[in-house]
Design goal:
Pfam families: EamA. Belongs to the EamA transporter family. The chain has 299 residues and is mostly helical. Helix content is 76%, strand content 0%. The protein has one domain (13-298).
């Protein structure tokens, strides 16, 4: 009886960390654009984000007794996760200059599909029918947050090169989540996040070179300092996601966090801006809420 009672309690840890990621990334998503609006470019915001990764990485590593997995396999997994995530962000910086964001982000938001397929095939992960329904609804809801009924799928004939770039970002982040789950089977979450931090810092010089310093850059308190306050939410949310993958199934964690984050962002943006979203966005919000509930019940 003791073992039966203890199991559900342990299983719920993935849900707590997933919800932590949803809240942190949701708040981050609602305010991350402020820095660029106030004259601090997105490339430098990336640099600030990479630096904010240091504090939580050092903190959790210290709590783990400074035990860092240093074998070749762990280093490969850790850097792969870090570089895939950071590399996808770097490609995104260029992608948004070549095409409309309202079409780019619906494509990128399908990254959990890559994670789900890889986890299903290679890790043989399965879930209940509630989980399957939650995954399906989450995948339907994700594009609705940015999709435009007026533009539809006109991008297929637009001739722009943003679409393959968006697919690259989607693939990077989908494969990153898969490796995050895979790495948790052989190394500590603290080591994973430490190498994620290293991967992010490795691309700081690239982001620096991408910055157009010929334009005025806000270096006041509402420039890099405000960016740091916002980006620390992203960093801690990423740490929470690592732990979510440690205790939960990637086939459930990926769609839950990717649907829940935009849900929180949309609600906060609605309250702050006092703007009523379109019918498609409202439908996406409802589906995301139902999907999140089903995925939670599937645990």
């Amino acid at each position: 009886m003791t073992e039966v009672a203890a199991a559900p309690k342990a299983d719920k840890r993935w849900l707590l960390f997933s919800l932590g990621t949803v809240v942190l990334w949701g708040v981050w998503g609602a305010f991350t654009g402020i820095s660029a609006q106030r004259g601090f470019p997105e490339t430098l915001t990336y640099c600030v984000w990479a630096l904010t990764m240091i504090l939580p990485a050092v903190y959790v590593l210290a709590r783990a007794g400074w035990k860092l997995d240093r074998d070749a396999k762990s280093i490969f997994y850790g850097l792969a996760i870090g570089l895939l995530g950071a590399g996808g962000q770097m490609v995104l910086f260029y992608t948004v200059t070549t095409g409309p964001a309202y079409l780019i982000f619906p494509v990128i938001s399908l990254s959990p599909l890559v994670t789900i397929l890889m986890s299903f095939v290679f890790l043989r992960e399965r879930t209940t029918w509630l989980g399957v329904a939650g995954v399906a609804l989450a995948m339907i809801a994700l594009p609705m947050f940015d999709f435009s009924l007026e533009s539809g799928f006109s991008f297929l004939s637009s001739g722009g090169n943003w679409f393959p770039l968006a697919l690259i970002v989607m693939a990077c982040w989908g494969v990153q989540a898969y490796f995050m789950k895979l790495a948790n089977n052989s190394m500590s979450a603290e080591s994973i996040f430490f190498y994620m931090m290293i991967g992010g810092l490795m691309l700081v010089p690239v982001a620096w070179l991408m910055t157009d310093f010929s334009k005025p850059i806000n270096l006041g308190w509402d420039g890099p300092w405000l960016a740091a306050g916002i980006q620390i939410l992203n960093a801690v949310g990423a740490l929470s996601l690592v732990y979510a993958f440690r205790y939960g199934k990637a086939i459930v964690v990926a769609p839950l966090t990717n649907a829940g984050g935009p849900l929180v962002t949309s609600v906060i943006s609605l309250v702050v801006s006092n703007v009523v979203p379109g019918e498609l966005k409202i439908a996406g919000l409802i589906l995301a809420f139902i999907a999140s509930a089903l995925l939670a019940l599937a645990a």
